[in-house]
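can u do me a favor
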């Protein structure tokens, strides 16, 4: 090549075209010398191409946020006929993204590369405090059990552990490290995406033509992070019941704990008392949507009919004393009032001033997110304590005060205003502008259930209404859909809704076919696969057929307001 270059320079006229050739050769040589993202495995047999990904080095420059680079630790071809494999042939890749702070944990990630690729990628989100590797081998969001999994459909699928490992429940110890906290709060989404793109390029010699993110709860938060913070990287996201405002959400959760545990636990209610309350709400409001089916769909009408005054009139114990499971004491009714009222910390967090009411008077049954087994919580909280209190306590102890021995009942947010607002910028995506995502053609589907007991559905109402006010109706119509499903809780519930989210999102992004009224199927055991229309907020499913018609068929409902 050196001799060729000298000849070209000595024969300028005749050498111009040759110089162009030399330049191209030199450029190609340079790209091959920097092999990590080069197409070293493209065109090879699947098994060889997969195995050669092991040891792949991904430089820090290939990841758009600060890291010390990444490495593929293992790569194994899973054949279509492998035992228990129903996902088709794919290359299972696992790696670690190294932190900048060597005392911080790395981010473990997995990328699954189907041999028959559809040129699209799907990143899946975690849950709770993350801390467990999301493999990408399972369902996307609230996927129907009768449809093929994303990897079977030809998607590259991927996920991570959110930047740390954690124990069961709300293990907040990771938050004592600044980098781990940043990774959980917002950065692991981008870092995992970029590492995955490097792996995909190394295998297929190209990036995906579409890149989606789908998640539930904390994964829903991560989906909104993907759209709002990293719009250039994603084409569409689905956020199911998202914990988009972790800081504000966990203060609201702590407020639930304080409502029932204060004053020696005077406001605490056992499971029987909570069931008494929610059963009264359902009995009062069930038929307001035209169908007697154990589901409250017309929430607005229920709010007018079943109030805290109704609770006092119907459920108060004689003289307000605690007389057993057939009634509520005055202290318990006061706890219900606090839970069913907005919580305001007294200052703004990520542009928001309140956390909305929990849906305890609207059919939210607290069957899983219960109030614990005792009126006195442990310190630190344990499995026998209210789950919402556990979340609020962990964030207060590990992220805010960084005092693991703190008794969260005594925690005063006002004394930690500056720190909480700082954390809001890390943990909450409430006020991050969606305009860049809309402008590049990105699409968002937001879904929440009316019975959610871990994250009140009114939290998603506020997110949608905030961005509707900022974007305007016409712009929101172009890129955002919000569906509210009566009877759905946090991935379970009276109506255990599943729906074809990925297919709807892909049609919208790829073909411009915006979703209208979607179909939700109840996958509770014994539900006979009853269906409901998924109505766009603020509408809800109204039974419009004759009284003899089945309340289990979506065709007998329309979306009303």
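np, heres the sequence
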């Amino acid at each position: 090549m050196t001799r060729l270059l000298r000849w070209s320079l000595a024969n300028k006229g005749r050498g111009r075209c040759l110089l162009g050739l030399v330049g191209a050769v030199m450029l190609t040589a340079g790209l091959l010398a920097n092999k990590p993202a080069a197409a070293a495995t493209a065109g090879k047999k699947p098994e060889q191409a997969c195995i050669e990904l092991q040891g792949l080095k991904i430089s820090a420059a290939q990841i758009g946020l600060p890291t010390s680079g990444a490495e593929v630790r293992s790569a194994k071809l899973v054949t279509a006929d492998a035992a228990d494999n129903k996902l088709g042939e794919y290359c299972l890749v696992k790696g670690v993204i190294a932190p900048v702070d060597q005392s911080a944990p790395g981010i473990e990630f997995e990328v699954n590369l189907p041999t028959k690729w559809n040129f699209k990628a799907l990143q899946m989100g975690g849950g709770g405090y993350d801390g467990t590797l999301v493999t990408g081998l399972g369902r996307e969001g609230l996927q129907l059990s009768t449809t093929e999994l994303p990897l079977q459909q030809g998607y590259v699928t991927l996920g991570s552990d959110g930047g740390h490992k954690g124990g069961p429940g709300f293990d907040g110890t990771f938050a004592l490290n600044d980098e781990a906290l940043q990774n959980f709060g917002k950065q692991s989404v981008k870092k995992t995406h970029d590492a995955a793109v490097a792996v995909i390029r190394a295998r297929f010699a190209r990036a995906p033509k579409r890149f989606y993110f789908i998640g539930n709860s904390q994964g829903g938060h991560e989906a909104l992070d993907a759209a709002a913070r990293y719009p250039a990287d994603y084409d569409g996201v689905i956020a199911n019941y998202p914990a988009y405002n972790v800081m504000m959400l966990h203060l609201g959760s702590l407020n639930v704990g304080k409502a029932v545990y204060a004053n020696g636990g005077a406001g605490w209610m056992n499971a029987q008392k909570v069931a008494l309350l929610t059963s009264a709400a359902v009995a009062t409001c069930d038929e307001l949507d035209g169908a007697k089916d154990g589901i409250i769909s017309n929430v607005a009408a229920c709010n007018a009919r079943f109030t805290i005054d109704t609770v006092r009139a119907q459920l108060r114990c004689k003289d307000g004393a605690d007389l057993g499971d057939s009634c509520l004491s005055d202290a318990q009714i006061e706890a219900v009032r606090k839970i069913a009222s907005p919580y305001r910390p007294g200052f703004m967090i990520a542009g928001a001033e309140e956390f909305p009411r929990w849906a305890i008077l609207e059919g939210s049954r607290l069957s899983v997110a219960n109030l614990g087994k005792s009126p006195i919580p442990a310190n630190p909280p344990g499995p026998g304590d209210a789950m919402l209190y556990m979340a609020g306590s962990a964030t207060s102890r590990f992220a805010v005060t960084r005092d693991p021995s703190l008794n969260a009942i005594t925690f005063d947010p006002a004394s930690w205003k500056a720190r909480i607002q700082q954390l809001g910028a890390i943990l909450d995506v409430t006020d991050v502008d969606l305009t860049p995502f809309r402008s590049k053609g990105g699409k968002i589907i937001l879904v929440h259930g009316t019975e959610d007991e871990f994250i009140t559905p009114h939290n998603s109402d506020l997110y949608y209404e905030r961005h509707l006010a900022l974007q305007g109706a016409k712009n929101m119509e172009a890129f955002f859909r919000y569906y509210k499903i009566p009877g759905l809780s946090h991935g379970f519930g009276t109506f255990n809704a599943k729906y074809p989210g990925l297919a709807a999102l892909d049609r919208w992004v790829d073909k411009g076919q915006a979703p209208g009224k979607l179909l939700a199927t109840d996958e509770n055991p014994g539900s006979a696969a009853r269906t409901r229309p998924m109505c766009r907020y603020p509408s809800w499913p109204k039974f419009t057929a004759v009284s003899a018609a089945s309340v289990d068929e979506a065709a007998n409902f329309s979306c009303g307001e």
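The longest strand covers residues 70-78. hope that helps!!
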